[in-house]
Design brief:
By secondary structure, this protein is mainly alpha-helical. The chain has helices spanning 2-27, 29-39, 54-68, 73-99, 103-127. The chain has 5 helices and no strands. InterPro entries: HscB, HscB_C_sf, HscB_oligo_C, J_dom_sf.
């Protein structure tokens, strides 16, 4: 009986872990989109092959430059707002692309979302006092 209970507890813990991982994957628009691409057999490569949109890349460079400056709460708040707005916009666009079954457009947009997720991570690390 004890052995059976231990096995059930082990399986319960394993399944709970999988459920939590699935929930976290589906909760975040970027990881959810990447998962949907994966289910469709489309991979997002490291060197995303979306057209090198010079306006987009310039915007990313400018934000990176602002993040490289000395700590400035006003700039951090401005960047945080910009990132949030861009992520919401890209999430709407990628949702529409999936609804149209346009996987190449979804892939391109998810590549852009990865850039903003990286910027968000940089911003968080800058805001945490060292």
């Amino acid at each position: 009986f004890v052995m059976r209970l231990q096995k059930e507890q082990y399986y319960s813990e394993q399944h709970s872990s999988l459920i939590n991982k699935a929930y976290q994957t589906l909760l975040n628009p970027l990881s959810r989109g990447l998962y949907l691409l994966e289910l469709s057999g489309v991979e997002l490569t490291q060197e995303t092959d979306f057209d090198a949109d010079s306006e987009f890349l310039t915007e990313i460079m400018e934000i990176n430059e602002k993040l490289a400056e000395p700590k400035n709460e006003a700039i951090f708040e401005e960047i945080e707002t910009l990132i949030k707005v861009k992520q919401e916009e890209l999430t709407r666009e990628v949702t529409a692309a999936f609804e149209r079954d346009d996987l190449q457009e979804a892939k391109k947009l998810l590549g852009k979302m990865k850039y903003f997720a990286n910027l968000e991570d940089k911003l968080k690390s800058k805001k945490i006092p060292s």
